[in-house]
Amino acid sequence: MIVILVFPDIELENMFPMFENGLLPSIMGAATPQSWFSECFLMAFLLPHVIDENHGRRWGNIAVVSIMLTLFFTNLATLFVFGNITASFVYPVISVVRYISIADFLEHVEVVVMALWVVGVFLKISVFYYALVTGLARWLNLSQYEPLVFSVGLLLCLLSNWSANDLVELTHFLGTTGSFYLSFVQTVIPLFLLLVAKWRNRAASPQPAVSHQERK
């Protein structure tokens, strides 16, 4: 909807020049969005509770592709509107939404976007919270995770203020070391654990018995 509403302000020449300094700057610039996108690994904590695992995996893949396309078209529309100054905005999507003005009637759409943003962040924190307490309960060999909810929530409140004092510090972290940290925690470690689990299951699977005649 954002792409459609800002279509009158879109200028395709803002995307040029492309690859002015080669392909490497584009790859390095994709590191930060990739670290955010790697949060999709949280679906692994929800799949064990799905009745039909194949059905859940299919819709999980559909969700990942939908998110990818949404981010792609939204960021592309922002680039078409602002051009080279896109990186100077703290929240470029909100800034481009403020440009929406159709017949002096449809304006201030950023209120709707902010409402959706708040709801999305709430759901995101809830899934992170659930993954943390369930994973911690399994690590401690607890039958239920409910006793950990309050204590972990208290730690989350304390650590959220300690990890970043302000927006400038948080932005600097996400744009520098945060990209490598998030990719390592959310992509490399889960992939390594998956390979270990595959190897352990393969090693523990019983081998078919071979008779003496078959060995001959």
Q: How would you describe this protein?
A:
- The chain has a domain of 107 residues.
- Helix content is 66%, strand content 0%.
- Helix 6 packs across helix 7.
- It is globular, with a radius of gyration of 23 Å.
- The N and C termini lie far apart (70 Å).
- The model has no long low-confidence stretch (mean pLDDT 83).
- This is GerAB/ArcD/ProY family transporter.
Output the keywords.
Spore_GerAB; GerAB/ArcD/ProY family transporter; transport; membrane; globular; 66% helix; mainly alpha; germination; single chain; 216 residues
Topology record:
Blueprint: H1 2-5, H2 24-29, H3 31-37, H4 53-82, H5 92-97, H6 110-139, H7 146-163, H8 167-175, H9 177-204, H10 212-215
Low-confidence sequence ranges: none
Number of continuous helical runs? 10
Structural class: mainly alpha
Major sheet: none
**Assembly annotation:** single chain
N-to-C SSE string, H for helix and E for strand: HHHHHHHHHH
Briefly characterize the structure.
With 216 residues, the protein is mainly alpha-helical. It has helices at residues 2-5, 24-29, 31-37, 53-82, 92-97, 110-139, 146-163, 167-175, 177-204, 212-215.
